């Protein structure tokens, strides 16, 4: 399946957000995720099914000044 992850086409076998995070090797504990411009609460990640063509934004916090 093809997803748009953070603005880039990505081919993946993942059908759920946890599977996608594992496949992309995200190890951050603090993430925010939106699918098709809708924020998905962490408690719903395992239930959020991904479909071909979905746009997924994975956001990690940064410190700066």
UniProtKB/TrEMBL annotation:
SUPFAM superfamilies (UniProt xref): MoaD/ThiS
Superkingdom, taxonomy of origin: Bacteria
One Pfam short name: ThiS
Protein name per the record: Sulfur carrier protein ThiS
Organism: Phreatobacter stygius
């Amino acid at each position: 399946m093809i997803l748009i992850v953070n603005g880039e086409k990505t081919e993946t076998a993942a059908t759920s957000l946890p599977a996608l995070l594992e496949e992309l090797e995200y190890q951050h504990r603090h993430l925010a995720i939106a699918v098709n411009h809708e924020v998905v609460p962490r408690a719903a990640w395992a239930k959020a099914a991904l479909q071909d063509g979905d746009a997924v934004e994975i956001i990690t916090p940064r410190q700066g000044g």
